[in-house]
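The protein record filed below.
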Amino acid sequence: MTIASDVKQCLASLKGIEAGLSNLALRTQDKQSKHTLHETMSVVHEIVTDLKKRVGELEREEAQYKGF
């Protein structure tokens, strides 16, 4: 696997984690748990945003990685 495909795979995994946290936050009744899940989801979202930027950089730097 190339670095770009590894980064994209990591990005996909993090998006899944973010969706899972969102789902748990919606289903839980405990306010503290809901708050903690939302905070964690927010942190994961920031990481996803940063990783998307990195994927864009990789694609600009190395044209062969575009579209993987």
Summary: Helices lie at 3-27, 31-61.
